[in-house]
Amino acid sequence: MPTPTPPKLPSRYRLYVDESGDHTYNLLDDPSHRYLGLLGVWFRQVDDYVAFADSLESFKRNIFGPRPDKPVVLHRSDIVNRKGPFGLLCNAEAQARFDAGLLDIIGRASFRIVCVVIDKKTHLQRSASPFHPYHYCLAAMLDRYTGWLNYKSAVGDVMAESRGGEEDRQLKQAYRRVYESGTLAVGHQHHQRALTSKDIKIQDKRVNIAGLQLADVLAYPIKQTCLVEKGLTPDPGNIFGKRVVQCCEDKLNRHEGRGQVWEYGKVLL
Questions:
Q1: What is the pTM of this model?
Q2: Judging by DSSP bridges, how do beta strands 266-268 and 112-119 pair with one another?
Q3: Mean pLDDT rounded to a whole number for the chain
Q4: What's the CATH code of the domain at 46?
Q5: Is residue 115 a part of any domain in this protein?
Q6: Range 28-53 average pLDDT
Q7: Which of 43, 48, 79, 234 could be 110's S-S partner, Cβ–Cβ 3.0 to 4.6 Å?
Q8: In angstroms, rounded to a whole number, what is the distance separating the alpha carbons of residues 199 and 35?
Q9: Tens digits of per-residue pLDDT, 55-69?
Q10: Is residue 7 situated within a structural domain?
Q11: Which residues pair with 161 in a beta bridge?
Protein backbone atom coordinates (compact mmCIF):
# COMPACT_ATOMS: atom_id res chain seq x y z
CA MET A 1 0.00 0.00 0.00
CA PRO A 2 1.26 3.54 -0.71
CA THR A 3 2.40 5.55 2.28
CA PRO A 4 -0.41 7.93 3.30
CA THR A 5 0.34 11.60 2.82
CA PRO A 6 0.60 13.31 6.21
CA PRO A 7 -1.99 16.04 6.76
CA LYS A 8 -0.84 19.54 5.90
CA LEU A 9 -0.22 21.58 9.01
CA PRO A 10 -1.91 25.01 9.20
CA SER A 11 0.22 28.10 8.69
CA ARG A 12 1.36 29.67 11.97
CA TYR A 13 1.41 33.39 12.71
CA ARG A 14 2.40 35.64 15.58
CA LEU A 15 0.76 38.96 16.50
CA TYR A 16 3.08 41.61 17.99
CA VAL A 17 1.35 44.34 20.03
CA ASP A 18 2.37 47.81 21.24
CA GLU A 19 0.47 50.92 22.27
CA SER A 20 0.48 54.66 21.68
CA GLY A 21 -0.86 56.69 24.58
CA ASP A 22 -1.66 55.63 28.13
CA HIS A 23 -4.38 53.52 29.74
CA THR A 24 -5.37 55.93 32.53
CA TYR A 25 -8.43 58.17 32.67
CA ASN A 26 -6.36 61.26 33.56
CA LEU A 27 -6.04 64.56 31.63
CA LEU A 28 -8.74 63.56 29.15
CA ASP A 29 -9.13 67.07 27.75
CA ASP A 30 -5.59 66.74 26.38
CA PRO A 31 -5.73 64.89 23.01
CA SER A 32 -2.36 63.25 23.73
CA HIS A 33 -3.97 61.53 26.74
CA ARG A 34 -7.56 61.20 25.51
CA TYR A 35 -6.91 58.60 22.81
CA LEU A 36 -5.19 55.27 23.34
CA GLY A 37 -4.13 53.35 20.28
CA LEU A 38 -3.24 49.66 20.33
CA LEU A 39 -1.45 48.45 17.23
CA GLY A 40 -0.76 44.88 16.20
CA VAL A 41 1.24 43.42 13.34
CA TRP A 42 1.21 39.74 12.48
CA PHE A 43 3.70 37.74 10.44
CA ARG A 44 3.69 34.22 9.09
CA GLN A 45 6.20 32.18 11.01
CA VAL A 46 8.88 31.36 10.06
CA ASP A 47 9.71 32.59 6.55
CA ASP A 48 8.08 36.04 6.38
CA TYR A 49 9.12 36.99 9.88
CA VAL A 50 12.71 35.79 9.56
CA ALA A 51 13.07 37.72 6.29
CA PHE A 52 11.85 40.90 7.98
CA ALA A 53 14.00 40.41 11.10
CA ASP A 54 17.10 39.83 8.95
CA SER A 55 16.43 42.93 6.85
CA LEU A 56 15.86 45.02 9.99
CA GLU A 57 19.18 43.92 11.50
CA SER A 58 20.99 44.59 8.23
CA PHE A 59 19.41 48.05 8.06
CA LYS A 60 20.47 48.92 11.61
CA ARG A 61 23.98 47.61 11.02
CA ASN A 62 24.33 49.76 7.90
CA ILE A 63 23.23 52.89 9.80
CA PHE A 64 24.78 52.39 13.24
CA GLY A 65 27.59 49.92 12.56
CA PRO A 66 28.07 46.50 14.21
CA ARG A 67 26.92 46.42 17.83
CA PRO A 68 26.87 42.70 18.75
CA ASP A 69 26.78 43.24 22.52
CA LYS A 70 24.43 46.23 22.54
CA PRO A 71 22.08 46.08 19.56
CA VAL A 72 20.10 49.15 18.56
CA VAL A 73 16.43 48.70 19.42
CA LEU A 74 13.98 50.89 17.49
CA HIS A 75 11.85 52.92 19.86
CA ARG A 76 9.86 55.80 18.38
CA SER A 77 10.32 58.25 21.24
CA ASP A 78 14.10 57.67 21.22
CA ILE A 79 14.20 58.16 17.46
CA VAL A 80 12.18 61.40 17.60
CA ASN A 81 14.19 62.78 20.53
CA ARG A 82 17.55 61.58 19.14
CA LYS A 83 18.33 59.67 22.33
CA GLY A 84 21.15 57.16 22.70
CA PRO A 85 22.43 55.80 19.39
CA PHE A 86 19.78 57.85 17.53
CA GLY A 87 21.83 60.96 18.25
CA LEU A 88 23.51 60.00 14.99
CA LEU A 89 20.35 61.19 13.22
CA CYS A 90 21.21 64.80 14.00
CA ASN A 91 23.37 64.43 10.91
CA ALA A 92 21.18 65.21 7.88
CA GLU A 93 22.79 62.57 5.65
CA ALA A 94 22.38 59.87 8.30
CA GLN A 95 18.76 60.96 8.83
CA ALA A 96 18.01 60.68 5.12
CA ARG A 97 19.56 57.20 4.91
CA PHE A 98 17.67 56.11 8.02
CA ASP A 99 14.31 57.37 6.72
CA ALA A 100 14.75 55.82 3.27
CA GLY A 101 15.96 52.50 4.66
CA LEU A 102 13.14 52.25 7.18
CA LEU A 103 10.48 52.93 4.55
CA ASP A 104 12.08 50.35 2.27
CA ILE A 105 12.13 47.46 4.75
CA ILE A 106 8.59 48.19 5.96
CA GLY A 107 7.32 48.40 2.39
CA ARG A 108 8.97 45.13 1.35
CA ALA A 109 7.93 43.11 4.41
CA SER A 110 4.91 40.78 4.38
CA PHE A 111 2.62 41.34 7.37
CA ARG A 112 -0.85 42.50 8.38
CA ILE A 113 -1.88 45.40 10.63
CA VAL A 114 -4.75 46.18 12.98
CA CYS A 115 -4.98 49.49 14.88
CA VAL A 116 -7.65 49.85 17.58
CA VAL A 117 -8.18 53.36 19.00
CA ILE A 118 -10.34 54.19 22.00
CA ASP A 119 -11.71 57.62 22.91
CA LYS A 120 -11.31 57.30 26.67
CA LYS A 121 -13.22 60.51 27.47
CA THR A 122 -16.34 59.42 25.60
CA HIS A 123 -16.02 55.87 26.93
CA LEU A 124 -15.86 57.18 30.51
CA GLN A 125 -18.86 59.48 29.98
CA ARG A 126 -21.01 56.68 28.57
CA SER A 127 -20.22 53.95 31.09
CA ALA A 128 -20.75 53.79 34.84
CA SER A 129 -18.01 51.16 35.08
CA PRO A 130 -15.81 51.58 31.99
CA PHE A 131 -13.61 48.80 30.66
CA HIS A 132 -9.86 49.00 31.15
CA PRO A 133 -8.92 50.85 27.91
CA TYR A 134 -5.92 48.68 26.99
CA HIS A 135 -7.79 45.45 27.66
CA TYR A 136 -10.86 46.67 25.76
CA CYS A 137 -8.66 47.45 22.75
CA LEU A 138 -6.90 44.09 23.04
CA ALA A 139 -10.23 42.23 22.98
CA ALA A 140 -11.27 44.09 19.81
CA MET A 141 -7.87 43.35 18.26
CA LEU A 142 -8.07 39.64 19.10
CA ASP A 143 -11.52 39.47 17.47
CA ARG A 144 -9.97 40.73 14.20
CA TYR A 145 -6.79 38.65 14.45
CA THR A 146 -8.56 35.37 15.17
CA GLY A 147 -11.20 36.20 12.56
CA TRP A 148 -8.45 36.50 9.95
CA LEU A 149 -6.76 33.31 11.16
CA ASN A 150 -10.00 31.34 11.02
CA TYR A 151 -10.77 32.68 7.55
CA LYS A 152 -7.32 31.54 6.39
CA SER A 153 -7.54 28.20 8.27
CA ALA A 154 -4.40 29.26 10.12
CA VAL A 155 -3.36 29.44 13.78
CA GLY A 156 -1.27 31.84 15.81
CA ASP A 157 -0.21 33.29 19.13
CA VAL A 158 0.35 36.76 20.59
CA MET A 159 3.30 38.71 22.01
CA ALA A 160 3.00 42.11 23.69
CA GLU A 161 5.49 44.61 25.01
CA SER A 162 6.00 44.59 28.76
CA ARG A 163 4.52 47.59 30.60
CA GLY A 164 5.55 46.71 34.18
CA GLY A 165 4.84 44.05 36.78
CA GLU A 166 1.23 44.81 37.73
CA GLU A 167 0.22 45.87 34.21
CA ASP A 168 1.70 42.66 32.79
CA ARG A 169 -0.17 40.53 35.34
CA GLN A 170 -3.46 42.23 34.48
CA LEU A 171 -2.77 41.87 30.75
CA LYS A 172 -2.21 38.13 31.14
CA GLN A 173 -5.54 37.88 32.96
CA ALA A 174 -7.33 39.93 30.28
CA TYR A 175 -5.95 37.76 27.50
CA ARG A 176 -6.89 34.58 29.38
CA ARG A 177 -10.45 35.88 29.82
CA VAL A 178 -10.79 36.35 26.07
CA TYR A 179 -9.39 32.88 25.42
CA GLU A 180 -11.67 31.20 27.96
CA SER A 181 -14.84 33.30 27.71
CA GLY A 182 -14.71 35.20 24.42
CA THR A 183 -15.62 38.87 24.02
CA LEU A 184 -18.82 40.90 23.78
CA ALA A 185 -18.78 40.26 20.02
CA VAL A 186 -17.32 36.77 19.60
CA GLY A 187 -17.58 33.48 21.51
CA HIS A 188 -14.62 31.69 23.03
CA GLN A 189 -14.72 28.88 20.45
CA HIS A 190 -13.79 31.40 17.77
CA HIS A 191 -10.64 32.35 19.68
CA GLN A 192 -9.68 28.87 20.86
CA ARG A 193 -9.89 27.50 17.32
CA ALA A 194 -7.28 30.02 16.14
CA LEU A 195 -5.02 30.67 19.13
CA THR A 196 -2.34 28.10 19.90
CA SER A 197 -1.82 29.26 23.48
CA LYS A 198 -4.11 30.30 26.32
CA ASP A 199 -1.34 32.62 27.53
CA ILE A 200 0.00 35.82 26.00
CA LYS A 201 3.77 36.18 25.65
CA ILE A 202 5.27 39.36 27.13
CA GLN A 203 8.73 40.74 26.38
CA ASP A 204 10.62 43.83 27.49
CA LYS A 205 11.11 46.62 24.93
CA ARG A 206 14.86 46.40 25.42
CA VAL A 207 14.90 42.87 24.03
CA ASN A 208 15.76 43.01 20.34
CA ILE A 209 12.48 41.62 18.92
CA ALA A 210 11.78 42.80 15.38
CA GLY A 211 7.98 42.50 15.55
CA LEU A 212 7.68 44.58 18.71
CA GLN A 213 9.97 47.24 17.24
CA LEU A 214 7.81 47.45 14.13
CA ALA A 215 4.63 47.76 16.23
CA ASP A 216 6.30 50.53 18.25
CA VAL A 217 7.28 52.48 15.13
CA LEU A 218 3.83 52.17 13.52
CA ALA A 219 1.57 52.68 16.55
CA TYR A 220 1.63 56.48 16.78
CA PRO A 221 1.43 57.44 13.07
CA ILE A 222 -1.36 54.97 12.30
CA LYS A 223 -3.30 56.02 15.41
CA GLN A 224 -3.00 59.64 14.30
CA THR A 225 -4.17 58.73 10.80
CA CYS A 226 -7.27 57.11 12.29
CA LEU A 227 -8.01 60.23 14.35
CA VAL A 228 -7.54 62.55 11.35
CA GLU A 229 -9.83 60.42 9.19
CA LYS A 230 -12.55 60.60 11.85
CA GLY A 231 -12.13 64.36 12.27
CA LEU A 232 -10.94 64.01 15.87
CA THR A 233 -7.60 65.76 15.43
CA PRO A 234 -6.24 68.23 12.86
CA ASP A 235 -4.17 67.05 9.93
CA PRO A 236 -0.50 67.52 10.95
CA GLY A 237 0.66 68.34 7.43
CA ASN A 238 3.54 66.86 5.51
CA ILE A 239 5.38 64.85 8.18
CA PHE A 240 7.47 61.69 8.01
CA GLY A 241 4.81 59.70 9.86
CA LYS A 242 2.52 60.06 6.84
CA ARG A 243 5.16 58.47 4.62
CA VAL A 244 5.43 55.59 7.07
CA VAL A 245 1.66 55.03 6.94
CA GLN A 246 1.57 55.29 3.15
CA CYS A 247 4.27 52.64 2.70
CA CYS A 248 2.22 50.07 4.64
CA GLU A 249 -1.31 51.12 3.64
CA ASP A 250 -1.81 47.89 1.67
CA LYS A 251 -0.94 45.82 4.77
CA LEU A 252 -3.92 47.00 6.83
CA ASN A 253 -6.37 44.21 7.57
CA ARG A 254 -9.48 44.50 5.42
CA HIS A 255 -12.62 42.67 4.34
CA GLU A 256 -11.47 40.10 1.81
CA GLY A 257 -14.34 40.79 -0.58
CA ARG A 258 -15.15 44.47 -0.23
CA GLY A 259 -11.67 45.73 0.65
CA GLN A 260 -13.17 47.67 3.60
CA VAL A 261 -10.48 48.76 6.10
CA TRP A 262 -12.51 50.47 8.83
CA GLU A 263 -13.76 47.93 11.39
CA TYR A 264 -11.13 45.47 10.10
CA GLY A 265 -7.73 47.15 10.03
CA LYS A 266 -8.80 50.40 11.70
CA VAL A 267 -11.19 50.35 14.63
CA LEU A 268 -12.51 53.23 16.75
CA LEU A 269 -14.09 52.32 20.09
A1: 0.94
A2: parallel
A3: 94
A4: 3.30.420
A5: yes
A6: 94
A7: 48
A8: 27
A9: 999 999 999 999 988
A10: no
A11: 203
